Amino acid sequence: MRAALLVLLLALAPALHAATFRATVTHVTDGDSLWVKPAGSSGAIELRLLDLDAPESCQSYGPQAKTALRARLLNENVRVRTRGVDDYNRQLARVEHQGKDVGAWMVSQGYAWSMTFHGKRGPYEKLEAQARRERKGLWSLPGALEPRSFRKRFGRCQ
């Protein structure tokens, strides 16, 4: 009985971290991480945008990705839907600004890759393919290297 309860709790753990709320963006760390202050709260929380991976800050097109996200969201009101936490204790989230998915916009403009999961392409796959065809953003550069591969090869930015 205890084992069954433990398995159930572990299966539900991501849902326990799920929430939807309105917030104001207070800081943009890079092209896929930002801080928001939930409405009615005095503290800010760090978010990691779901289903995409933006270039590292020291990687080609990393500064442009951060600048684009900052220009679009800093001090703006957003709708946040969280779904769990990552290894760095950031809330994993979809963020909407003026009713539009910010992650979709980042990928469609060539500021980020659509994340892959166990060999399966993520929800922004078609947007990434279109950005590649149109040579938008990071796709205008020869040999764009996915951040995961960049970190394996060169380590994290300092």
UniProtKB/TrEMBL annotation:
Signal peptide location in the record?
1-18
Source species, domain of life: Bacteria
Against SUPFAM superfamilies, the record matches this protein to:
Staphylococcal nuclease
- UniProt keyword annotations, A-Z: Endonuclease, Hydrolase, Nuclease, Signal
Domain TNase-like residues, every copy: 19-141
Please give one Gene Ontology molecular function term for this protein: endonuclease activity
Write the protein's name: Thermonuclease family protein
Query: Which source organism does the UniProt entry give?
Result: Ramlibacter montanisoli
